[in-house]
UniProtKB/TrEMBL annotation:
GO terms for molecular function: protein-lysine N-methyltransferase activity. It comes from Catonella morbi ATCC 51271. The gene is prmA. It catalyses: L-lysyl-[protein] + 3 S-adenosyl-L-methionine = N(6),N(6),N(6)-trimethyl-L-lysyl-[protein] + 3 S-adenosyl-L-homocysteine + 3 H(+). This is Ribosomal protein L11 methyltransferase. GO terms for biological process: methylation. It is found in: Cytoplasm. Keywords: Cytoplasm, Methyltransferase, Ribonucleoprotein, Ribosomal protein, S-adenosyl-L-methionine, Transferase.
Amino acid sequence: MANGFDKWEEKHMKWLKYTLETTTEATDLIIDMLGELGIYGVEVIDKVPLTEAEKKQMYVDILPESLPDDGKAELVFYISDGAPDEDSSAFYNSGTGIENVATFYSDELIEKIREGLEEVSNFADIGSGAIYISETDNVDWADKWKDYFHTFKIGKNIVITPTWEEPENISESDIVIKIDPGVAFGTGTHETTRLCVEELQKYVREGSEILDVGCGSAILTIAALKLGAKYAYAMDIDPVAVKSAKENLLINDITDDIAKLEVGNLLEDKDLCEELYKKQYDIVVANILAPVLVPLTPVIVPALKEGGYYVCSGIVKELADTVIEAITSSGLELMSNTVDGDWVCLVARK
């Protein structure tokens, strides 16, 4: 049971945001130094361009334009403030540089950081080494996005509703899908998810069997099953996504006998592919990104029944032709090419 202080802390806890100005050359050394002081989770803000390996790992289609690297960096970290008095709160809100203040609640910590910076300066240029501070409230950022996710409808009768809302004006023909995506992709609000759901409404039949590759929150799996599919096999390379998917299946009263979830990567796991090919599916849906869909398409074609449909999205318009080439070269017939904003959804038939 939470005591009085716990309740006060939950409501009034303040966090001090520390910003340390330095150089990209010294960044790693300073982060190591901060770690020795028990400071972890440091955010690095710089203009260092992504490496090719990082781009590949992120599966980024189009990177935002970035400014030239100027060698400067900011390191940002947060430390609990406890319960400061009014005077210190006024200072914390000012964003004043620490070095200009004679007395400070975190004097000891600042002194240790400065000693560490002096040591690092023997090995690398640390730049100005200036430290700035500001105060922020105790906001549960992991749940803050929920303020912007509300019940909405896709197509004629698919109603997507967050678990923390009770949908209103629901008709008998509406199919309600309850979703709590957590950190997994798939609330239904993104164009690619909506496009996939709309295609599932066209092609799912009573008794259809579905393969959902890159399932995220499992919103497409749930939609297919509620539209009449009798079985779905969903997978994602991210264990956190699969955990979220499992919770969403339970929320929607979908049992293990009609939905299988698995953590796996079909591009790297040959044993998983062999297991997958033991069964074929009426519909394969993959809402991922074009750089993944291109090598993935020929891998999943053997899991598609003759006459079955391949629904894929997560494709920016500029890369649609690349995915279409992968589809047709894998022996599939392109059936439709639907565009919504900057995004494309392709449907092909085996």
